[in-house]
């Protein structure tokens, strides 16, 4: 009897081994070049404290399309204009999904945010809402007066501080935060003058900084799932803390908006949270927009429009101060097109190609997110690079 049991176990092991070999042979793909991985950690030993620089150095050796192994996860990295066009435009649908990460779970309301939701009906609906409702030309133009008022406020504050050293980044952060707050939330929720504020401007800025950091880190637990419970880097604990802070603030915002909507008959949506709450009541939506989805979208809008704009402006001015000849050309274009007797308006931008080129070059030299949010291939596909064919799983 015992011999029969061992014979059965041995036969089962042989069967599993042969099946594994067959599946591996069938799944063997012509992957892009890359360094040989170590057991367990893969190529994580090659990634330093600044991952985008480590990846750039590796791309100099292995090319603009390379294959790395991060723990248990195979990763294909594209690091050229050609590859960006392939992944983000030509084959966008193939790479439209997102991997399941701790950041998406804990800071993205369980993958309900625009940034972390996987491809599917919910993702398609979110994209449609952004294009048609939230970021339509008509709606963005209707908020132009807010941007004008906040820019004028920024200039007045800078004028009052003339003759003194100022930390420009702080002024720019406050300005962009006020613009986005009024467009998304309907008012300056973060003014220092507001009584009983849920969160102070300083604390909210720290929350944003923490959110940006935690959504951009390489979390070992995501890459080696069987040790994720250890939270070796402490990132998951920090994600839970910052998500609770944001949720407390967003609950207050939604409660206030819902109370205002109930108290006025025939209420007309004024800001983006109003639009989202209106959409949440729409019975024709393919996927119902739940309360946590409204909070996730609102958080995305606040985070995506504040620090990114302020940092870009700060770098642009910094680069201009280091290049007097560029500063002079920009001033000459402003004097020629706008003159010295009026302010620049948004409608003037198409007539200011040199200024626009400065902004684009700033974004090229100092990207807000050197490494984009990771994408997940929805199916095996073929990618061409300089007449070479690679398969991606």
TrEMBL record:
Gene3D superfamilies: Cytochrome P450. Pfam families: p450. One of its GO terms (biological process) is secondary metabolite biosynthetic process. It is found in: Membrane. It is a single-pass membrane protein. Its cofactor is heme. One of its GO terms (cellular component) is membrane. One of its GO terms (molecular function) is monooxygenase activity. InterPro entries: Cyt_P450, Cyt_P450_E_grp-I, Cyt_P450_sf. This is Trimethyltridecatetraene synthase. It comes from Sesamum alatum.
């Amino acid at each position: 009897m015992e011999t029969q049991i061992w014979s059965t176990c041995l036969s089962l092991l042989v069967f599993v081994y042969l099946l594994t070999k067959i599946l591996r042979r069938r799944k063997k793909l012509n992957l892009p070049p890359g360094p040989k991985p170590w057991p367990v950690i893969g190529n994580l030993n090659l990634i330093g404290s600044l991952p985008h620089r480590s990846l750039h150095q590796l791309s100099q050796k292995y090319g603009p399309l390379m294959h790395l192994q991060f723990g248990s996860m195979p990763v294909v990295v594209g690091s050229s204009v050609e590859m960006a066009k392939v992944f983000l435009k030509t084959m966008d649908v193939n790479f439209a999904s997102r991997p399941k990460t701790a950041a998406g779970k804990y800071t993205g309301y369980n993958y309900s945010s625009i940034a972390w939701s996987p491809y599917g009906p919910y993702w398609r609906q979110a994209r449609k809402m952004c294009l048609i409702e939230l970021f339509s030309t008509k709606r963005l133009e209707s908020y132009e007066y807010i941007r004008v008022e906040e820019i004028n406020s920024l200039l007045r504050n800078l004028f009052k501080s003339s003759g003194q050293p100022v930390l420009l980044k702080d002024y720019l952060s406050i300005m962009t935060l006020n613009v986005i707050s009024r467009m998304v939330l309907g008012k300056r929720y973060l003014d220092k003058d507001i009584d009983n504020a849920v969160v102070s401007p300083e604390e909210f800025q720290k929350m944003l900084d923490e959110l940006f950091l935690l959504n951009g880190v390489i979390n070992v637990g995501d890459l080696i799932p069987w040790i994720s419970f250890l939270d070796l880097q402490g990132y998951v604990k920090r994600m839970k803390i910052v998500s609770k802070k944001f949720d407390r603030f967003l609950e207050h915002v939604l409660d206030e908006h819902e109370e205002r909507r109930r108290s006025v008959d025939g209420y007309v949506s004024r800001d983006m949270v109003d639009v989202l709450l209106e959409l949440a009541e729409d019975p024709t939506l393919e996927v119902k927009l739940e309360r946590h989805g409204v909070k996730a979208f609102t958080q995305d809008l606040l985070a995506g429009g504040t620090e990114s704009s302020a940092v870009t402006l700060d770098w642009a001015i910094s680069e201009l101060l280091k290049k007097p000849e560029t500063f002079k050309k920009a001033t000459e274009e402003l004097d020629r097109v706008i003159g010295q007797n009026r302010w620049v308006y948004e409608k003037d931008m198409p007539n200011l190609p040199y200024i626009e080129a400065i902004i684009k070059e700033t974004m090229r030299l100092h990207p807000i997110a050197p490494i984009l949010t990771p994408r997940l291939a929805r199916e095996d596909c073929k990618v061409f690079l300089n007449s070479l064919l690679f398969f991606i799983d």
